[in-house]
Structures are given as C-alpha cells and as structure tokens.
Amino acid sequence: MKAFRILTAGLAGLMIAASAHAAGGAAHPHAPEEGWPFEGVTGQFDQASLQRGYQVYQEVCSSCHSMKLLSYRNLGDPGGPFYDPDYPNPNDNPFVKALAAQNEILSPTPNEAGDYDFRPATPADRFRSPYPNDNAARAANGGAVPPDLSVITKARHGGASYVYSLLAGYPDDEVFKERVVTEATDDAPAEVQTVIDTSKLHIGHGDDHHYEGYLIQNVGQYYNPYMPGDTVPQFEGDPRHAPPGGFLAMPPQLVPGRVEYSDGTEATIEQMSYDVAQFLAWAGEPKQGNRRSLGLAVMVYLGILAILLWFSYKRIWRNVEH
Ligand code: HEC
Q1: 121 lines ligand 1 (CB under 6 A)
Q2: Whole-prediction pTM value?
Q3: Where is it mostly found (predicted)?
Q4: Ligand 1 atom 29: the closest Cα is on which residue?
Q5: Is 31 in the pocket of ligand 1 (CB under 6 A)?
C-alpha cells in the first residue's frame, strides 16, 4: 500500500512537472506533414526543392541575412541545387555562372588605381553579404543582427523543422487588434498598441490549448510561438496559460505568392518555408549525400569482408580439433 502511495505521488509529481513545462518555453518545432526527404539512412535532398529554396533565399532572405560560408560555386557541387553532371567542375556550369552574376559584389582585389570596385560575382566568389558589418546590420534592423544563415540549421535546436516552423508559424492576421492607449489630443496623435487576441491562436497541429488573454506586441518585435523566449511579461491574462514562444525582431517574411517559382509550383507560405528550410539544411551540410552513400558502401564492404573471414576461418581450422 505504501509503495502504491509513493508511486502515485511520484506520478503526480511528474505530471505537474510536465504541465509546468508545457506552459513555458517555445512550441515544439514540427517537420512538414510529409517529413523531410533528407532524413533517414538513405535520405537525400530533393533537388527541385533546393532550387526553389535558393530562389526564396535569394529573393527574400538575402536582403538581410548573409551566408558567408557559401560560394556560388557550391550551388553546382554534386548534391547541390544546380548540379549538372555535364559540368563536373561547377565553375564551368553556365547556370551557376548566371546565378552568381545576378549579384553585385565589392571586388576583394583592388583595381589598378588601388580602389575596390563593384562587379558581378563569379562562381568563385562568396555569397554577397547584405551589410558591410554587424553595426550596419543592427542599425537597419532595430538593434538586432540577422544571423548568418550558413549553418543555422545546425545552430538551432530542431534544425530544418525549426526554421520551417518559425517561418510558417507567425500568427494569422485575424488575431491582431489595434488598441488605443492614449486618445489623440490637440498636439499629439493617439498612441496605438498592437495586441494579439490569444484565444484565437492556433499553434501547430493538434494543439488543443486555450490561451485566454491578450499579448502586447511592442513596436519592432514580432510574436512567434516557435521563438525561444517568454511571453509572460507581455501577457494580460492568467500567466499559467500564457502562450508558448517569444518575440523576435524579424517581421513575418512570407505571404502567399511572395516569390514566383520558375517551375510553376504554387508559392504558399508552407511551400516557401519548406523549400528554404531544406535549402538551409543542405547549406549546413552540403556533403551529407556523399557521406551517406560512402557509409552505405562501407557497410556493404564490411559485410562482404565478414563473410569471407567466416569462410577462411572455417577453412583454416578445418582439420584442427577445437
Ligand atoms: C527585413 C530583414 C529580414 C529578412 C528579409 C529576413 N530576416 Fe530573418 N531575421 C532578421 C532579424 C533582424 C533577425 C534577428 C531577430 C532577433 O534576434 O530578434 C532574424 C532572425 C532569423 C532567424 C533566427 C531566429 C532565431 O532563432 O534566433 C532565422 C532562422 C531567420 N531569420 C530566417 C530567415 C529566412 C529563412 C528568411 C527568408 C525567408 C529571413 N530570415 C528573412 C531579419 C530578416
């Protein structure tokens, strides 16, 4: 009986701990419904998706985020978005050359007069950075530096699923309300505040929580349920039922049709988030495909070796009593 009581007390304790955990922190990042093609032992990146993902990065994200570890040439590497077996050397790949040339970069080598000119990038150049330095980036983004995206899926818990969930996870327009804080006077306009009606929030699949209250969104800060942080200080309501997530300085970037895909795929928010997250996962580990095929070859080799060893063992000890 005593043991039973201890057990129930322990279970109750665990449940309280679990529910307390659910109230704080960020929403758990989720993979797209169909999963990621690059996961699993034999998983590979989907090349068409990588191409669309590069388009999203180039047309949307690259105005704020650098990818300093990548050169345009990498786009044409084996396993890369624009790999073409006719051009084993990506520096010769005409498509990669054209993509590089769409970007004007400051030449890293001086001209004859000793100055640095802008010129179209070549496959050998690093990706163009939107800002010359972090201070310029901070000044342009309300005090926050947009992080370099070269290895972002490695740097964040949840990887590609996190990037996907974050981009597609900003709340819908219908939850926002404008609230007048101070009425307009003769010499000052009304002060207006943006609040989120959290009872209308739907976070992730199968989220049956109810967040009754209002979340105050300060100017230049945007609520996202997947951003690690704490919403309690800005929540008007029962703090135990504050919604998960936090605030970040990046406004929502994707609206339907934000890019026009050249392969005709419909540019929904989910689709663009999926493609750019897959592209960033590839960028963080461009050699994953090679590593997987090598791993498989090594396993097959070891298997054959094991069989041969077994037979030679049998043969060598054939006439020996043991
Ligand atoms: C208008 C500028 C701007 C654009 C465009 C933009 N971002 Fe951001 N992004 C930011 C800023 C600023 C931050 C830093 C936010 C903070 O720390 O509060 C950020 C942060 C991020 C983060 C990190 C969040 C974290 O966990 O710290 C990711 C991932 C990200 N952006 C991805 C993207 C992707 C992908 C795109 C293109 C679809 C994109 N961003 C477009 C400004 C931008």
Answers
A1: no
A2: 0.86
A3: membrane
A4: 163
A5: no
